[in-house]
Write a structure and sequence with these properties.
This protein has about 450 residues and is an all-alpha fold. The protein is built from 24 helices and no strands. The N terminus and C terminus are likely disordered.
């Protein structure tokens, strides 16, 4: 923040020792004084009565400036707030130090004249305000360094934090220390990954090759130790798990990798996490596991997130099964996915549904499956998926999507459905052969629509 601060530094220092006291905490923040009405002299008695109120007023000015993104003004009031705290001889210090850390960090991150040097200086002094949050501040400091591309500095910061000790380690400090170690493990993994890329892409030979391998193995050992520890604690550790499994797979320890993923997905002590089942499924697929294992992994994912993109793979596997129960589940899965707005224009999903309902209609078996799925959707799917507006838009933007949806609409809503009529008319008008075939198919199997909806020919509305 040097630009705007230098202009007022001399004046502020001359006017009051308080400014110099504030700058002991924020060495680069030689800020101008706030409005005079906050600095009026008061008796000792009045000071004691109004001190808390003046702090609250000052803090409200800081918050207001931050909300309006007036970072210079926020910095000025924060400096005054810190000065007021230095005059406070009460025991309530832990709360303000937390606020100084959070607010000061936010201001320095957004201020147009702030620098990395100032940020580092501020954070280093914040670390001295309270040992109870030392590790947490170190971790946030490392994140800020990483966001600014200072990977080596972040690694050094985490290493120093890991060696820090103060009195007897509490349970909270133990967890925070494991986080510090885990993020250092991530950076070791990053170094390992860079060395792996050099080895695989550049094809070094001789001593260079041996040197890279040795560096890789050193990074692997350090990363594996710390990553393995953090994922033993119940929680959501997606990034750590992925990196650890990548290390294990590279060195051929597939059994350990499988055990880690199974534990992460199925251990009841861990919170329900769809990504855990995604990682397990992807691992099983990479290693050519049986369809039964893949279906088992995706079934749990379906129960947690029925709209997940892997549900298309799940539906495809279920449709290829010889078991009727699994094919029935496949129809349920694809209908459930299309209940979500994010799937409305998913061509693959509509293609899967179109293919399955077409097979059922032609075979005239299991029409009751379609009927069961359609009964709970007949009141809202027509407006959600098959309006005339959507027919026009789909036809203009994606012919393949309009074709698949028109086939489904024709079967579920009959040949008089607005969506089907518009798309088939446009397709025939454009002399696209498959739309003529589509129109003939829906007209031919219109009785199937009547059976699905439970209508008779005489009750069909024009």
């Amino acid at each position: 923040m040097d630009g705007f601060l230098e202009e007022t530094a001399a004046t502020a220092a001359a006017k009051s020792p308080a400014a110099q006291a504030g700058s002991a905490l924020l060495p680069a923040l030689h800020l101008p004084f706030p409005p005079p009405h906050l600095c009026q002299p008061a008796s000792s008695h009045e000071h004691k009565l109004n001190f808390r109120k003046s702090k609250e007023v000052c803090l409200s000015y800081v918050e207001d400036a931050m909300l309006q993104k007036q970072w210079k003004r926020a910095a000025e009031f924060l400096t005054f707030y810190i000065e007021s705290l230095e005059k406070d001889f009460s025991t309530e210090y832990m709360g303000p130090s937390e606020m100084i850390w959070r607010i000061g960090t936010e201001i320095l991150c957004h201020h147009s004249h702030s620098s990395m040097k100032e940020f580092n200086c501020f954070i280093e002094q914040i670390k001295t305000l309270g040992v109870k949050r030392y590790l947490k501040v170190c971790l946030e400091h490392a994140f800020h360094l990483l966001c600014n591309g200072l990977i080596d500095e972040a690694y050094q910061n985490l290493s120093l934090a890991e060696s820090w000790r103060f009195g007897e380690q509490t349970v909270i400090q133990d967890k925070e220390m494991k986080l510090i170690q885990a993020y250092r493990g991530l950076l070791d993994y990053y170094s390992w990954s860079k060395q792996k890329t050099i080895l695989l892409e550049h094809g070094l030979n001789g001593f260079e090759d041996l040197s890279v391998e040795q560096e890789m193995h050193s990074c692997f050992r350090k990363a594996a130790v710390n990553l393995k520890e953090i994922i033993k604690i119940p929680g959501v550790w997606d990034l750590f798990v992925k990196c650890y499994v990548d290390l294990l797979e590279f060195y051929g320890d597939h059994n350990e990798a499988r055990q880690v993923l199974n534990e992460y997905a199925y251990n009841s002590k861990f919170p329900a996490n769809p990504n855990a089942h995604v990682y397990l499924y992807q691992f099983l697929k990479r290693h050519g596991e049986s369809k039964k294992s893949l279906i088992s992994a995706l079934k749990i994912l379906y129960d947690i997130v029925p709209s997940h993109e892997l549900m298309i793979d799940f539906n495809t596997m279920l449709q290829k099964s010889k078991k009727r129960k699994k094919r029935r589940l496949g129809l349920e899965v694809i209908f459930a996915g299309l209940d979500y707005a994010g799937w409305k224009e998913n061509v693959k999903a509509w293609s899967c549904l179109a293919r399955q309902v077409k097979q059922i209609v032609i075979s005239e078996k299991h029409l009751d499956w379609i009927k069961q799925e359609w009964n709970s959707r007949r009141d809202w799917w027509p407006a959600f998926h098959f309006s005339r507006y959507l027919a026009k838009r789909n036809w203009q933007e994606n012919e393949n999507l309009s074709y698949e949806k028109a086939l489904v609409a024709g079967i579920l809503l009959g040949k008089d459905c607005k969506y089907f009529k518009y798309v088939s008319h446009q397709g025939c008008k454009a002399q696209v052969k498959r739309f003529r075939i589509l129109k003939k198919f829906v007209n031919k199997y219109n009785p199937a629509y009547l059976r699905i909806t439970g209508l008779s020919d005489s009750s069909v509305q024009p």
